[in-house]
Amino acid sequence: MQQENCNKLQNRFYNWVTSWWSDPEDKADDAMVMAAKKSKKEGQEVYINEQAFLSLSWWILNKGWLSYNEIITNQIEIEFDGIHPRDTLTLEEFSSRLTNIFRNTNSQIFQQNNNNLTSILLPKDSSGQEFLLSQTLDADALTSFHSNTLVFNQLVNELTQCIESTATSIVLESLINESFHFIMNKVGIKTIAKKKPGQEDQQQYQMAVFAMSMKDCCQEMLQTTAGSSHSGSVNEYLATLDSVQPLDDLSASVYSNFGVSSSFSFKP
After folding, report:
1. Would you say 67 and 119 are in contact if contact means Cβ atoms under 8 Å apart?
2. CA distance 2 to 266
3. Is the Oxidoreductase keyword given for this protein (predicted)?
4. How many angstroms separate the CA atoms of 137 and 54, rounded?
5. Can you tell me whether residue 196 is helix, strand or coil?
6. Which CA distances in Å does 250 have to 152, 165, 166?
7. Which helix (H) or strand (E) is 90 found in, with range?
């Protein structure tokens, strides 16, 4: 019986070899087709994983921003509660209140390894992640995604590591400080410019004037492009942030695989 089985195996192997050599080109073509299909499938899976990762921006715009807005709104109410449009403040007093808003907001965002910041930028759990992906991927892409999430998980882990790092905190705080100085400089200029003739020595301004100056400042900051090839205008605010040196260092560390060849490294 053992000899009979051995003979069968030998015959099968012989038939396979003779079949291969009788038409090697067809066999090679079949192998190439199968390899191409496998490569295409893997490439498609990687692409869908990358699209799923890019769709995370949906979270901060539709969910995460609500948490951030709640923190800021609460701080504004604390600092300006009871102050009416006709009440007056000096620029120094207004700046002091705005400073408190920035400082207290930062203290809530940048704590416990930036956990609050992470929840603003990314879903907290798998159910939140699944909800996000259901909003941004079609049914077929979502099914394909669930079959292989390796690349997506790697990207999310790397992003989480980046968010929780001390290097990122330094950069974000630098950007926030630059934003504060930019805002106060613009508000000061716009508020003083609203003085009426004969009020050159005026030191106090109605809260309504500060509100209008802030609105004008926000409109400048929220220009949709950093520069326009048609008008030649430049978003001064974005240009200011772009010049912050720690931001360049952080960007370099991202492209060098998390600080391998940079002074920044993503360690909590």
Report:
1. yes
2. 63
3. no
4. 11
5. coil
6. 22, 11, 11
7. strand 88-90
Residue written as token pair 């998980």: 153
Distance CA 246, CA 264 (A): 9
* Phi, psi angles (nearest 5°) of residue 265: -140, 140
List of residues 6+ apart from 48 with CB closer than 8 A: 137, 141, 144, 145
Rounded Cα gap, residues 186 and 213, in angstroms: 8
Tokens 């974000």 belong to residue: 172
Looking up tokens 């705005």 gives: 98
**Mean pLDDT confidence for 184-193:** 94
What's the mean pLDDT in 170-191? 92
Quote the CA–CA distance of 31 and 82 in Å, as a whole number: 77
Statement: residue 233 has pLDDT above 80 = no
Quick one: pLDDT at residue 163? 84
* Calpha distance 101→180 (Å, rounded): 10
Rounded to whole angstroms, the Cα distance separating 21 from 235 reads: 69
Per residue in 16-25, pLDDT tens? 444 544 555 5
Q: How confident is the model at residue 63 (pLDDT cuts 50, 70, 90)?
A: confident
CA distance 186 to 171: 23
Q: Backbone dihedral region of 51: left (phi > 0), alpha (psi from -120 to 50 degrees) or beta?
A: alpha
Residues with Cβ within 8 Å of residue 8, at least 6 apart in sequence = none
Residue burial 116-126, b: 16+ Cβ < 10 Å; e: rest: bbbbbbbbeee
| Residue indicated by tokens 């709104």 | 73
Give dist(CA 258, CA 243) in Å, integer.
Answer: 21
In the structure, what pLDDT confidence band is assigned to residue 46 with cuts at 50, 70 and 90? confident
